[in-house]
Design brief:
The chain is an all-alpha fold. It is 86% helix and 0% strand. The protein has 2 helices and no strands. The longest helix is centred in the first third of the chain and has 29 residues.
Length: 66
């Protein structure tokens, strides 16, 4: 149970960080900042990490139901 809580907390933090990165990219686009492309790899990596975390959390939830 504690492992699930830790993973959920980490997932929540990771999502918050991704949202912040997306918001900064949006600002850069709106301001016409040409360095917006620098966000692409960071956002892509964060999204992949979050996807992995979601699968891990879902797996732990399934285990706890049984």
């Amino acid at each position: 149970m504690q492992d699930l809580q830790q993973k959920c907390s980490h997932l929540s933090t990771s999502i918050d960080h991704l949202i912040a990165k997306l918001q900064q990219a949006k600002i850069d686009v709106q301001e016409g900042n040409h360095c917006v492309y620098l966000h692409s790899h960071s956002i892509e990596n964060a999204a992949k990490d979050i996807t992995t975390q979601i699968w891990q959390v879902a797996h732990l939830m399934r285990i706890q139901k049984t």
